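Lab manual, section 2.4: Encoding a predicted structure.

Procedure: take the sequence of the chain (180 residues), apply the prediction step described in section 2.3, and record the output as structure tokens. A sample record is shown.
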Amino acid sequence: MKEIEVKILNVNKKEMQKKLEKLGAVKDFDGELKQIYYDIMDNHLRNCKKSLRLRKACNKTYLTFKHKLNTHKAKICDEFELEVSDFNKMHRILKEAGFEELKKADKYRTAYKLDKTHFELDTYPNEPTLLEIEAPNIKTIEKYVKLLGYTMNDAKAWSYAEILEHYASLKKKKIKKLKI
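Recorded output:
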């Protein structure tokens, strides 16, 4: 399946929830996500623009493989996802198979759906809330970006790792300014 998405950083969660509800979006998830990203020795998957993630959301667990294809206007990936019965057992299987735990990434998500478009408000610890818009095509993403009061210049075709790098660089700049 193709995943087509953008992220808008630093959104006001309460205001965005009101905007989404005004558009007719329906909340379909509100809770914590526990995630672990894996790679093979020497970051083989990441170097090939691929990722492997184990995610637990409430009482469901998913194993997801992604291959990033394009990041021109949106992040476009081939995505394969499978529900598995046990988070801890799957984690152990991956470790025993030689996958290394690359990063844990717990977050709080409030998700909405409107037609075939998903809107996810994600808050990582110590980071501002971001909005992810996932739709069947870029034209639909552009439509909702505009309806929510943004432009495509605000929309990032970034992965989770790129978002973390962005926030880390902002923190470094802030620290440098404080030292001057």
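Check your result against the sample. The chain has one domain: 2-179.
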